[in-house]
Amino acid sequence: NPALAPDVVNNSWGNSNGSSTVFQDDVQRLLDAGIIPIFSAGNSGPGSGTVGSPGSYSFAVGATDADDVIASFSSRGPSPWGKIKPDVSAPGVKVLSSLPGGGYGVYNGTSMAAPHVSGLTALLLQADTALTYSQTTRLLTQTAVSLGAPIPNNAYGWGRVDAYNAVQSALNAGQIVGVVSDKNTAHPIAGAEILITPRHTGYTGTAVANDKGFYRRGVLENDYNLTVSAFGYQPQTRLSVIVTAGSVVTEDFSLPPLPTGVITGVVAEADSGIPLSATITVENTPITAAANPLNGQYALALPAGVYTLSVASPGHRIGRAVAPVTVNQTTRQDFSLPVAPTILLVDSGPWYNASQISYYQQALDDLDYYYDTRRIKFIPQDVPISATLQAYDVVIWSAPLDSPGYINADGALKDYLKAGGKLFLSGQDVAYFDDGSWFAKPYYRDYLKAQFIADDAKTDKITPVSGEIFDGLPLTISGGDGANNQQFPDVITLTDSDFAAQTLVYTLGGNAGPRVGHCLPYRAVVLPFGLEGVNRRTDRSQLLNAGLNWFQSPRQSSGFSATPLAQTQVGNFGETVTHTFRLYNQAELGAPRQVTLALNSHSWTVDFPYSAITLSPCQSATLTFTVHVPPDADWNAQDVLTVSAQSGAESAVITRISKAPAPVLLVDDDRWYDYEDKFLQALATNGITPDYWSVQGASPMGSPPLSVLQRYPMVVWFTGYDWFQPLTPDEEAVLQKYLDGGGRLFFSSQEYLYVLPDHKADQFARDYFGVLSHTEYITSSLALGVAGNPIGNDLGPYPLTFPPGYRNWTDSLTPTAAASPAMTGQSGLPNALTHSGAATHTWH
After folding, report:
1. What is the arithmetic mean of pLDDT over 97-102?
2. Is residue 108 within 8 Å of residue 52, measured between CB atoms?
């Protein structure tokens, strides 16, 4: 039914190959049927010639942002045939749009821009149903706001569409123009509002006077009443203003001022009383006044009423007061503004159209802080330099999806911190870009004392550290009235706890934010998530307030630490064990302090040469003492001693355990999956308490040297699912010497043989593990002991189950002539071997 054909079809789709003509005939048939197709230009910008198809040969729309700047992603022309593309542009950044299922969401793209133009096209056809395709597109292009150069161009086309001007041109409407001025002074009244109401039927419109008091409004032919109003003036109404098509009707207004009273007072600094230069704003009105910097005095003439005044002066908190005004009377209202840091708020989001600065501004406004905002819209010219940052006491940096290093601002931040600045840095990808990527920047570790750990905390819940600056402020970084944009909050760790402290923790583990600056000339709060994601306005304000309060807090004047408080060292029988501990004067100012040391009860021989030590502020000392392990000590025997450290009212007790070796050493050498608990549990079930050595992991000890292995008659060494480097050649050499000395080794590894050169058993694997060859093509789903084998006899069958992500790459083994199968898989092929020294049988 042709009567049901649409007038306009929006096409928020396309092919990034602009030369494709697959749909060219279809587009032409739409045009032949009198249907206007509007296409998105594509999101492959900012390179030239990136316009997609069918937009390359149809009416195409690019995307602009709130600043009327073409979006970086918006595809550019020319088309493959040399045509200027896009034809026009429209808002396509952070556009609120309907979603399937009845919801709404904010999206970017030329797919958001094209519907604006499709809607405007429908509006034009409503204004004039006789418009042809060429007439309609000409109205769209000729009334657009000119952007870029020349006009048209391959970024904006003819410019950003202007619905008002386009429709007015289609209607051939009349206009009402005029000037609104003060009746007494004839000065223009900027911001005066003109309400245009049809006397009978029709649409009501408004106009607003510009700085020169001039207003203009296009209207349909009709008979109108005009009412003009402005703050501080009596409104005026003019009846029956007749407008005909194509006419321009001039209606000027002179408004008499309302009678006024006066609010006057002095703006001064709290505590010092020094007069301040300040701006006084009458909220919800256009009225402002300036305080005289010489004496702080100000005066405001206002109509009768009750007003809220706000007072802003750089370096001070915002002052607020409610004051009544009575005609022909004076009201006194003084302001005493507390000193505050000067604050620069850096918005790093605009250059990629993802600003979240409104959340920061809202929090600072709620806290009554005065601040300046620096928008980074264009790179590199808008990136603040060192001198810009150093003009402020505090820099708050919002990096929604980038980082300071990403835009080469790391040098300026480093200089700012070196000069004693205070930095509040927040963003979910800052750690990833500035420490975890290939272009990592040294400032992140050197100055922020933090290190990237993971790109996704996998939780939206954050817990404050007790006693720290955010204590009592649990956070959720999704939903609520936040930005709900925290897809990949980073996990970080401290690089030096002398200078930094953890303040926030993800509920699934991991550092969610340190404070930095102890014993340093600067201070910083580093949030590896975006403050904008915090789901409650009050929590965002409290989070920022706690950071700002800490920036202004005095330096620490007390405190000392002893680390680690507890530690165990293993020494061989008859050998000396060396213990260390570190004392640290945590006071940042004041006189040197003495720490007295006392050695408490112990059984073994100890050499402890200390009684006291003096430490200046921020100074530390590492102390060393030794304990002799008796040659006749039992396996696993131990001696516990404590050292008491006292400085004034502060004290610490350091515990050190010296022990003889256990019969078994458990070497934890898994890389990706942690399964030491399985081995510890198995050993415990057999009544064995091993010594434990972690090669990797959170507190890596590195590979155990030969001298350590030789303490133990038995070593259990496992690598788990490590496909990178289960055993190094050096580790093989150490194990060979250990076995040659008569050692017993239980070795468990899924990938050891696979990562050897050419995936073949090397000399060590053949001579000591007894592996002639292996295959992964026949894996095991169970382990069954081999009858008669000293290990496998009467064992199993045991099913082999693997957790998600832990793939079954078990090896099927071919033993050498000297080795024996200990267990087999379901296929009957060996998957475990035993081997011992061929002649002496001293090693196993």
Report:
1. 89
2. no
Environment class of 411 (CB within 10 Å of its CB; exposed 0-12, middle 13-18, buried 19+)? middle
Decide if pLDDT at 116 tops 70: yes
Pairing mode, strands 714-720 and 782-785: unpaired
Provide the Cα torsion 170, 173, 176, 177; round to 10°: 40
Structure tokens at 405: 């290093």
> How far is residue 805 from each of residues 509, 675, 801, measured CA to CA in Å?
21, 14, 12
Residue 757: burial class (beta carbons within 10 Å; 0-12, 13-18, 19+): exposed
- Please enumerate in sequence order all residues whose Cβ is within 8 A of that of 697, keeping only pairs 6 or more positions apart, or say none: 668, 674
List pLDDT tens digits, range 126-146. Answer: 999 999 999 999 999 999 999
Please give the Cα distance from 173 to 796 (Å, whole number): 93
Asked if residues 726 and 765 have their Cβ atoms less than 8 Å apart, the reply is no
- Under the banding of pLDDT at 50, 70 and 90, the label for residue 838 is low
Task: Please report which residue ranges of 535-635 form alpha helices under DSSP H.
Answer: 537-552
Lowest mean pLDDT among 587-596, 743-752, 802-811: 802-811
- 3-state SS assignment for residue 11: strand
Half-sphere exposure of 501 (CA within 13 A, CB side): 16
**DSSP labels, 117-135:** HHHHHHHHHHH-TT--HHH
* Check whether domain 664-834 has CATH 3.30.460, yes or no: no
Q: Please tell me the distance from the alpha carbon of residue 404 to that of residue 391, in angstroms, as a whole number.
A: 18
What would you report as the CA-atom Rg of the chain, rounded to the nearest whole angstrom?
38
Task: Domain 2-170: give its CATH architecture.
Answer: 3-Layer(aba) Sandwich (3.40)
For residues 252 and 226, what is the distance between their CA atoms, to the nearest angstrom?
A: 11
Would strands 214-219 and 279-282 be described as parallel, antiparallel, or unpaired?
unpaired
What is the structure's pLDDT at 238?
A: 97
Segment 449-459 mean pLDDT: 95
Q: What are the tens digits of pLDDT across the range 367-420?
A: 999 999 999 999 999 999 999 999 999 999 999 999 999 999 999 999 999 999
CA–chain centroid gap for 329, Å, is: 54
Which CATH number describes the domain made up of 560-659?
2.60.40.2310
What sign has the CA pseudo-torsion 751, 756, 757, 761? Answer: negative
Lateral strand order in the sheet of 593-599? 566-570, 650-659, 638-647, 593-599, 612-615
The CATH homologous superfamily to which domain 265-337 belongs is Carboxypeptidase-like, regulatory domain (2.60.40.1120)
Q: Does 149 score more than 90 pLDDT?
A: yes
Distance CA 162, CA 160 (A): 7
| CB count in 10 Å sphere of residue 705 | 10
Q: Name 306's Cβ contacts closer than 8 Å, sequence gap at least 6.
A: 322, 323, 324, 325
For residue 417, what are the CA distances in angstroms to 361, 517, 528, 554?
Answer: 23, 10, 19, 18
Contact 581/575 with Cβ under 8 angstroms? no
Longest CA–CA separation in the chain, Å: 121
For residue 628, is pLDDT > 80?
yes
Tokens of 158: 């003819």
Helical segments of 191-294, H only: none
Phi-psi region of 495 (alpha: psi -120 to 50; beta: other; left: phi over 0): alpha
Establish whether the linkage from the previous residue to 91 is cis, with ω within 30° of 0: no
CATH architecture of residue range(s) 343-552: 3-Layer(aba) Sandwich (3.40)
Topology agreement, domain 343-552 and domain 560-659: no
Residues ≥6 apart with Cβ < 8 Å to 792? 784, 785, 786, 821, 822, 823, 832, 834
